[in-house]
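Data availability excerpt. The first of two example chains:
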Amino acid sequence: MSDTTTSEQQSTATASSTSTTVSTTSPTSSFINTKTLATLVVVVAITVALFTPLRNTLSKTFVKPAIRTMSTTTSPALKITKRPWSARGHADHDWLYTYHTFSFASYYDPRHESFGPLRVINEDRVKAGTGFGTHGHAEFLIFSYIVNGTLEHKDSLGNLENLKRGEVQFTSAGTGIRHSEYNRNKDEEVHFLQIWAKPNKRGLTPHYETKKFTDEQKADKLVRIMEYTDRLGDRKDATDPIGLQADLSMDASILSPGKKVTHEIVAEGTRKIFLQVVMSKRAQPKEGGGKIKVGDVTLGEGDGAYIDNVSGPGKIEVESVGDKAAEFLLFDMGPDDA
């Protein structure tokens, strides 16, 4: 194109020079040059008119992907890492059949030691007539979510309770507490989730309390079971969650097939979410069973999921995609270990 331009410039220069020399003796040559120039102007105008729509179309075509890329960069997608039920730590002590989400007792995996303030999620089944004998704890926040059966709790604070389905017992071990967890039933096992979290303060006064959250309350809804005391404030109604000294909330739901629930991120800024689906039997069903979906990840009974790149304010939607109701727990927590 540069050769053509140079040639045209040279031709124009020659014509101009000729025009200047000949104009006094040849009016016809001047008229021809003027007509040629006018024709060129028309051709250029037509070319510009035809090129403009094409340029706009091309502009729109190539700009859109750039906008999508920018949007993706400024609003990163959730990072969801599945924790399959069978990949958890597992032990069968005859009296205790258990799965460990995080490193616990003889099970150790450096990839799964904690998540935010969460330190333990054990799914325990205790055989009839057996249990955890009296033992001590300090500093940890410990709560038990009863799935089936009856669990007897007895501690050094003088508490003695029999906990059944829907009940949650909470112990803030603080400076130290001793307790036992026992299945006094002679016929059936007790199935519960034992959860430990690290408090944001050490040296707390030992504390114990229980609350009940029914299946009806949790049916197709998220019910707040535990809540950070800084967010809970002075609320102490029977339907209010249990307060704990960690930037952690725990919701529970029993979600019917095809139903959805939406979790509102509890605080602004960077957060972490952990999901845990409760098992109905000792192993995940090979087909069917309770299943939930978050993002593009499907979780069956016993599966868990680490969710990073969470930011509040925001929402996370959970859908039940199995052929039976899925019972699950949702933890919303600050990003750092306590």
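And the second chain:
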Amino acid sequence: MTDTAQTTPGEGGGVSRRAVMRAGVWSVPVIAAAVAVPARAASAGDVARVEFESNDVIDGAFPYIFLYDANDIGVEGVDVTFTVVSGPVEIDGGSIGTATSFTGGAVAFPGYTTGTGTAVITVQVGSLPTLTWNLTIS
């Protein structure tokens, strides 16, 4: 006669449910931390070039500004400061506002028109020289 080893639930012969649960509980915070921290956040220092899509504001729609790095790749997550120098344009009832670049390095002007004519807006991206954006509003 041959003896055959038999196990009942909870006795040897594998990994217990308790061990699996312990491993699962510890893996969740590690995975969450890995997802929450980007490999490298963009900064204004990554921006090598600023490009204006257009100088025309038509029916209140402002053109985008684009931020590019030295390899002509759009830089996302960079704050841009806009200051209205003159013209029929406001930013939240004032003249200064900030917007953050998003997909492809695009930046949307954070203000609106209050009429037609011409406007002058300065654009500041990090330590780059201040740019002047001359707009025609129709």
